[in-house]
Design brief:
Blueprint (H helix, E strand, L loop, with lengths): L1 H20 L13 H19 L8 H8 L5 H11 L3 H15 L2 H15 L12
Length: about 130
């Protein structure tokens, strides 16, 4: 459990640094009063991104779509979580790009497109081995 928490803390620090560097007015940590609420928000977002990745209906991750459309969560936070918590990043980055295009957030859609192109250039990080 300690390794998992350390990993999540590293991701949260990355999110905070990226939001500061981009001078985002939106913060992933808004509305969170302690580590437990931050951790729950992170897990909720991660879960919803995984639903998007697995091809669930849009209604199953409507909370994520709403948060992105209403600018309640930064693009930087979503990208960081995708990079750390999703296997098929290309599908999710394409989905996020369409959400941002729908919202008229061209700058965020462009960020998603750039990451999508980088991710598509690399194979999925999955290794298989033969049983002996």
């Amino acid at each position: 459990m300690n390794n998992i928490l350390m990993n999540v803390c590293g991701i949260l620090i990355d999110i905070h640094e990226k939001e500061l560097a981009s001078e985002e007015k939106i913060s992933f940590f808004t509305g969170c009063s302690n580590f437990q609420s931050i951790y729950e928000k992170y897990n909720t977002v991660r879960f919803l991104l995984r639903r998007m990745e697995l091809g669930f209906e849009k209604e199953s991750y409507a909370e994520l779509r709403s948060a992105a459309l209403c600018e309640e969560i930064s693009c930087e936070a979503l990208v960081e979580i995708v990079l750390h918590a999703v296997v098929d990043k290309a599908i999710v980055m394409q989905g996020l790009e369409s959400i941002y295009l729908e919202a008229g957030a061209e700058k965020n859609a462009q960020k998603c497109r750039q990451i999508y192109e980088l991710v598509c250039a690399k194979p999925l990080p999955v290794a298989y081995c033969k049983k002996k």
